[in-house]
């Protein structure tokens, strides 16, 4: 069968953290004159990273929950779908003379 969603979340979190470092460096190079950028520029660099990682953690957890729900739906379909399919096949075979 398929691995549980928790097995796929940990590697995604690590990849997301690597992407966060790149995004942080890219965003630091591209800060414009917006008010949000000005307020973030005044923050401690460590606080910026912590805020970014916290936001990323929330996003990854939300994706994990969604993935878990989809996985559960798929597993339910796998368990019940084969019974429904077998029933339809046997019904069709009964109708054929």
How would you describe this structure to a colleague?
Helix 1 runs antiparallel to helix 3 (45-95). This protein starts with a helix and ends with a helix. The longest helix has 51 residues, at 45-95. Helix content is 86%, strand content 0%. By secondary structure, the chain is an all-alpha fold.
Brief write-up:
It contains three helices and no strands. It has helices spanning 5-29, 35-41, 45-95.
The Cα radius of gyration reads 24 Å
Order of helices and strands: HHH
The CA-CA distance between the termini, in Å, is 37 Å
Contiguous helical run count: 3
Major sheet: size, sense and barrel closure? none
Task: Supply the key terms.
97 residues, mainly alpha, 0% strand, rod-shaped
Topology, element by element:
Blueprint: H1 5-29, H2 35-41, H3 45-95
Helix pairs in contact: 1-3
């Amino acid at each position: 069968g398929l691995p549980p969603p928790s097995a796929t979340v940990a590697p995604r979190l690590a990849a997301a953290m690597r992407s966060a470092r790149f995004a942080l460096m890219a965003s630091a190079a591209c800060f414009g004159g917006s008010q949000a950028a000005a307020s973030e520029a005044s923050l401690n660099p460590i606080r910026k990273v912590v805020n970014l990682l916290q936001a990323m953690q929330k996003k990854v957890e939300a994706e994990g929950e969604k993935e878990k729900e989809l996985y559960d739906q798929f597993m339910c379909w796998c368990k019940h779908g084969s019974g429904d399919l077998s029933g339809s096949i046997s019904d069709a075979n009964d109708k054929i003379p």
